[in-house]
Amino acid sequence: MKSNVNSKTMFTSRELARHLNIHINTVRCWSDQGILKSYRIGPRGDRRFMRDDVMKFLEDTLKPA
């Protein structure tokens, strides 16, 4: 099964939550706490997450102790 993760450079909160199999509120919380870098766009301030930032977050988070 091929994923379209590699074809996109930015994710919405909902898309990222689906890809990481976590609740959207967890994505928002991590963003608010600065754990996961996000960018605010548009007049509503919607969050967007760059693929490279997400990959770095996952690498840092999943490193063995």
How many alpha or pi helices?
3
**Widest beta sheet: strand line-up:** 1-3-2
Taken in chain order, the helices and strands follow as EHHEEH
In the CATH scheme, what's the topology name? Multidrug-efflux Transporter Regulator, Chain: A, Domain 2
CATH top level is Mainly Alpha
Strand content: 15-25%
What is shown here, in short?
Strands 1-3-2 form a three-stranded antiparallel β-sheet.
Protein described:
- This protein has 65 residues and is α+β, with helices and mostly antiparallel strands.
- The chain has a single domain, classed as Multidrug-efflux Transporter Regulator, Chain: A, Domain 2 (Orthogonal Bundle).
- Helices cover 45% and strands 15% of the residues.
- The chain has 3 helices and 3 strands, in the order βααββα.
- The protein has a 3-stranded antiparallel β-sheet.
- Helix 1 (13-20) packs across helix 2.
- It starts with 9 loop residues before the first strand and ends with a helix.
- The model is unreliable at 1-5 (pLDDT under 50).
Could you outline the blueprint of secondary structure elements for this entry?
Layout: E1 10-11, H1 13-20, H2 24-33, E2 39-41, E3 46-50, H3 51-61
Antiparallel strand pairs: 1-3, 2-3
Helix pairs in contact: 1-2
